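Let us practice reading a record.
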Amino acid sequence: MIDNCYPWQQNIADVEKIAYMSGYEMIGGIDEAGRGPLAGPVVASVVILPKNTVIPGINDSKKLTPLQREKLYKIISTVAIDWGVGIVEPVVIDQINILQATYMAMKQAVAKLRVNPQLLLVDGNLAIPEVSIPQCPIPRGDTFVTSIQAASIISKVIRDKIMVEYDAIYPEYGFAKHKGYGTEGHLQSMERHGVCNIHRTTYAPVRELLIKQVRLTPKGNMPAQRVKVISN
């Protein structure tokens, strides 16, 4: 981490400009998608854009429509000097917790870069542990910092595509619609069909449903497996 990120964090809108003026040329923005959902992976991306890149319409991925995200995804993936993606599946999230899984996805994304960034601007309050590249956490970076916004869009679009693929395997849950988030329809589907193996069993709504199922199952009649498994 940079010795003192505080001045940068107080000038979020100009942080990339300040970084360039400080001598950094290859700057990677990092963000993730999928920390909150009850199902599916967490996806992180790092994007290195050419110096002073302006992408009309770019914003935090959560503030864009799916169509806007798709259009920007194509632009970003074309103009970027380099970009990388990391994906951590639900079973690992349950094993190590979502924060550590997010760090893992971010480190995977950085490891996939072919171009070595001189600086990483990380959305949020915390730096990524065990990464030797200088980095600076930027609170609300996805609102103001172009490279972080680009990473948020890449992460969101890729994760949404993954959830659409899962919807074809588990159509009863409606993953293509809610992308694994805890909507009323998703919760109702879980009540009706139980949970599948892309649900995060350490997340409260999923965990509570599994406990409820165990309590309601008569002794001696426990199912051999409550969680559906994707067949090879």
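A brief commentary: The mean pLDDT is 90.
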